[in-house]
């Protein structure tokens, strides 16, 4: 007996039921505008509550290097008279301390809050909290105008939830505001192009200009902007002159700021490596080098797995992208995702170096995660109904939902460091925290320290870290290769240096040899070979 026609018939039945179920999800219109707004408010309250409950983690005095940079600048705005044009860091032992930096708007706004509500976790991190809440609102508005209220609400929920899995979820830094402004800009641009709203054009020009000034890498969203313009004007080439003029107008503020930043780098310092800097910074591009290394892909995969609910979440995102491409659904978000992927590729070393840069993928990935999850739920519903022969729809959905939730619990991310730190007293840099406590024991009120090894070595230059200075409360000088000499130490001693410290010194043999000389000539106050820490009194 030939079972092939029977099997083919069952396959077509499965396929038909799956697609009818999935299409029912995708085009579901059973939620009114009023109901949608109420549910959105509920999502915002949930996200706000979760963020408020964890906003103090980690404690400000033991936070991460990324936030330390911005805290220093914001505190100095308060101290030095709120001059946006002169961002200043605290840790260098001598002038100049004014530094070149991308537009420090977030640090500046935070500094205005300190006299009002004090210097605390809320005042420092309020802008980040608000940026993520506004991101939820405008991702909802963007998805709603492109698809449906149902999909918009689900996407808004995940846009609010997913950043909570990042260690950078609370920090005072520019990325959260930049990500919100990117989504806001796409929404306002679409409203202008397709509905001729002049006010939306003004909002877009302001928002996108600020976003580029915060982070030039946000220029990658030019791809979804171009797609919106093409969708409306197709091949009417003359229309693209206006597009070019609008984009050019958005570059005026960034051009002015980076011209000013270049002036700061030339006449003062550039500890952030915006223009190569005092220490060169690191080469964030290295595209061909990085893309030829398997560990680059492994690192990006691991980071995305943390953000996007593990292996099952990533599989749902991939399935959502495939369905969107195959059936031409949510094409704007395909363009948005391609823009972010191009950013990952072009800024290859920067994305490998730290995971906060991958936060930019959360808005488009949330949309495709929802599509993939609905497809998975539709598939489970179809399999349960057909193979178990269930005709009671409620029971079928319950069983499908239980299996669906089970899949996400069976594939957790097992490594401890993948989860957000929940102890506010845990220092983000344990080695530097330990070292700083030893420095505090011996430092006087006017002590200055020379540090070797307090930097991350990269191709193109080194990133100088402020962490040990910040944790210990002592200013100083960071010396690097070419400065490891007794003459250099004597020169800094005349400027007030009375302590010398070294960290992670075995990675540089010349430094390790120099430390042997220093240990023989000066009093060793603390040594920890296992942690590669050495503290010396310069007498």
Helix content: 55-70%
Q: Note the main sheet.
A: 5 strands, mixed
Strand content: 5-15%
Strand order of the largest sheet: 4-1-5-7-6
Shape: globular
Low-confidence segments, given as residue ranges, are 414-418
Work out the helix count: 22
Q: State mean pLDDT (0 to 100 scale).
A: 90
What structural category arises from helix and sheet content?
Answer: alpha/beta
Number of strands: 7
Write up what this structure looks like.
With 539 residues, this protein is an alpha/beta fold. It has 22 helices and seven strands. The chain has a five-stranded mixed sheet, sandwiched between helices. The chain has a two-stranded antiparallel ribbon with strand order 2-3. The longest helix is centred in the first third of the chain and has 26 residues, at 121-146. The radius of gyration is 27 Å and the shape is globular.
List the main descriptive attributes of the protein structure presented here.
62% helix, alpha/beta, two-stranded antiparallel ribbon, 7% strand, 22 helices, single chain, 539 residues
Give a short summary of the structure:
By secondary structure, the chain is α/β, with parallel strands linked by helices. The chain is 62% helix and 7% strand.
């Amino acid at each position: 007996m030939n079972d092939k026609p029977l099997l083919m018939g069952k396959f077509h039945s499965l396929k038909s039921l799956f697609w009818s179920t999935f299409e029912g999800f995708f085009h579901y219109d059973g939620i009114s505008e009023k109901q949608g707004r109420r549910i959105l408010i509920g999502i915002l309250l949930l996200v706000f509550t979760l963020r408020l409950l964890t906003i103090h983690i980690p404690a400000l005095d033991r936070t991460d290097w990324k936030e330390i940079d911005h805290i220093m600048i914001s505190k100095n705005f308060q101290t030095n008279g709120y001059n946006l044009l002169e961002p200043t860091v605290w840790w260098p032992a001598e002038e100049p301390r004014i530094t070149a930096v991308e537009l420090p708007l977030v640090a500046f706004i935070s500094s205005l809050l300190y006299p009002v509500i004090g210097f605390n976790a809320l005042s420092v991190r309020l802008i980040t909290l608000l940026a993520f809440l506004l991101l939820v609102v405008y991702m909802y508005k963007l998805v709603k105008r492109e698809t449906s209220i149902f999909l918009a609400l689900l996407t808004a929920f995940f846009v609010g939830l997913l950043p909570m899995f990042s260690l950078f979820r609370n920090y005072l830094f520019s990325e959260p505001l930049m990500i919100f402004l990117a989504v806001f800009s796409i929404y306002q641009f679409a409203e202008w192009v397709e509905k001729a709203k002049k006010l939306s054009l003004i909002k877009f020009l302001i928002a996108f200009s600020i976003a580029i000034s915060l982070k030039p890498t946000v220029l990658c969203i030019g791809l979804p902007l171009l797609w919106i313009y093409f969708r409306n004007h197709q091949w009417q080439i003359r229309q693209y002159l206006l597009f070019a003029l609008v984009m050019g107008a958005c570059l005026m503020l960034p051009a002015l700021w980076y011209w000013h930043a270049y002036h700061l780098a030339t006449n003062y310092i550039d500890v952030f490596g915006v223009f190569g800097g005092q220490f060169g910074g690191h080469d964030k591009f290295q595209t061909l080098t990085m893309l030829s290394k398997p560990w680059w892909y492994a690192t990006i995969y691991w980071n995305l797995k943390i953000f996007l609910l593990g292996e099952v979440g990533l599989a749902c995102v991939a399935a959502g992208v495939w369905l969107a491409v195959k059936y031409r659904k949510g094409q704007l978000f395909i363009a948005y995702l391609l823009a972010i992927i191009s950013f990952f590729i072009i800024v290859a070393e920067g994305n490998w170096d730290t995971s906060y840069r991958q936060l930019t993928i959360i808005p488009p990935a949330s949309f495709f995660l929802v599509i993939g999850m609905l497809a998975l739920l539709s598939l489970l519903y179809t399999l349960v109904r057909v193979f178990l022969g269930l005709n009671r729809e409620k029971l079928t959905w319950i069983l499908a939902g239980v299996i669906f939730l089970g899949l996400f619990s069976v594939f957790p991310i097992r490594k401890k460091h993948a989860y957000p730190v929940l102890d506010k007293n845990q220092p983000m840099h344990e080695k530097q925290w330990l070292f700083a406590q030893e420095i505090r024991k011996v430092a006087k009120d006017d002590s200055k320290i020379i540090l070797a090894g307090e930097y991350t070595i990269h191709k193109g230059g080194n990133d100088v870290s402020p962490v040990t200075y910040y944790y210990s409360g002592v200013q100083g000088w960071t010396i690097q290769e070419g400065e490891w000499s007794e003459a250099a130490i004597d020169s800094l001693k005349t400027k007030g240096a009375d302590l010398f410290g070294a960290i992670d010194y075995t990675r540089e043999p010349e430094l390790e040899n120099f430390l042997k000389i220093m240990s023989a000539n000066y009093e060793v106050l603390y040594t920890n070979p296992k942690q590669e820490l050495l503290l010396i009194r310069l007498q």
